[in-house]
Amino acid sequence: MLFGGIDIGSLTAQAVIIEEPDGKSARLKIHTKSIRVKPDPVESAKEVMGALLKDIGINWEYMKYVVSTGYGRERVQQEGLSHDNISEISCHGAGAFALYPNVRTVIDIGGQDAKVIRVGPGGELENFVMNDKCAAGTGRFLEVMSKTIGTDYEKLGFLALKSRNRFELSSRCSIFAENEVLHYLQRGASVEDLAAGISRSMADRVMALARRVGVEREVMMTGGVAKNVAVKAELEKKLGLRIVSPSLDPQLIGAYGAAVLARRSWRES
Question: Nearest CA to 89 among 53, 132, 56, 49?
Answer without folding.
Answer: 132
